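Below sits my pick:
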Amino acid sequence: MDTPLKEPNAEVVNQHTKQQWVYSDVVKDHFFHPRNLLLDAVAPGQFDAEGMVGSPACGDVMYVWIKVDKATERITEFKWKTFGCGSAIASSSMFSIMTTENDGLTLEDALKIRPQDVMLRLGGLPNRKIHCSVLIDKAFKKAVNEYFRSTGQHARIQVDGARVIDKRLNITDHDIEEAVLEGAKTLEEVQKKLKVGVGDPDAIPDIEQLIRFYSEKYYG
């Protein structure tokens, strides 16, 4: 939790605002001894899906990789890499435990984990760090959506606050935005990443408009 400016036990002090806070013992444990951290490079076919959120330019970046038992849809492996603060690393570590403990949660049950549940298991987070538990949740959901997409389960893809552009593949404007951020600047390049519009040609005008919009927004 955030603490008064004169808190003698404060462990972190914001150099700009001078705000101070302390971390729970659980957060410190997961920061200094992270569980399920991926140390090596990812080998082809090692995982079933990947999710990523964040940007090096503006803050924390989280990568999530999952392996799923096809018959039961239980998560058999959850690996991650997080570039960010102690709260981001601890949230990633704790989330990985919550999804794989007791022989692993099913995808359906794992998707029910809320950021508040992660915070509770961590013993709380400073107010200004609550977003870290939200980011790991988003990274995981992106990995699950990739899994659903790769296995042809398009109806199960979860869309939060986004507009569906390709109804056949359930691809959203956010998916197109991320493709542009990753360097795709033409319809062909976006389709190479997403297959968007291939089976839904009526969506192509909207796709091209979004590509122009995001290209101008991010690249001028």
